[in-house]
Amino acid sequence: MSSSGTSNLRPDLAAIAEMIPDGARVLDVGCGDGALLEYLVRTKHVDGRGIELSQQNVNACVARGLAVVQGDADADLAEYPGGVFDFVILSQTIQATEKPAQVLADMLRIGRQAAISLPNFGHWRVRLSLLVGGRMPRTEALGYYWYDTPNIHLCTIADFVDLARKNGAVIDRALALKHDTVAGEMRPDAWGPNLFAQGAIFLLRKS
Questions:
Q1: Hey, what domains does the chain have and what are their CATH numbers?
Q2: 3-state secondary structure at position 150
Q3: Taking the model in full, what pTM does it have?
Q4: Digitized pLDDT (tens) for each residue of the chain, 207 residues in all
Q5: Is residue 107 left, alpha or beta, with left meaning phi > 0 and alpha meaning psi from -120 to 50?
């Protein structure tokens, strides 16, 4: 799915980038080192802002010339007024927040649309690992041991869909991330997501 312009981005970030139109007002929450935000600013000329918890990553973003501040999604999104952004992005982070339901509600309040990617704890390898080994699994998408993981609210794709609906969200687009064994990389796919996908990307809006 990724075009040549997004080939250097992580697969979920490349899929999100293709959902964002030129000139949009964007807030990237948990923006990491700013790779996605920099791409959007430079190629799609978005009015981009970022929030990032890690001071090291904030410094990396500022070095890229990006408007990023240190902040916490759990605490700081509530301070933003409603409807100030066209898109609010949260990539591979919602499962690491303390209050994912509130974070999602804030995203839907401050942005016209929300783009979210997350790992899928319902993948068949995860289920098999728990069934056969009786231990918390480690996969490509969930590569931490249980005692050092930043993920505190693991969920399946079906779980997230339920949460979105409880928050009054409409899912405009959904993509499953699956490992392409031939290409040796993650790629978006739409088939059998909750069992076969290692992650997913959602584009949502408030109903």
A1: 4-120+153-206 (3.40.50.150)
A2: coil
A3: 0.86
A4: 444 466 689 889 999 999 999 999 999 999 999 999 999 999 999 999 999 999 999 999 999 999 999 999 999 999 999 999 999 999 999 999 999 999 999 999 999 999 999 999 888 888 888 888 887 767 666 676 767 777 788 899 999 999 999 999 999 999 988 765 444 455 556 556 788 888 899 999 998
A5: alpha
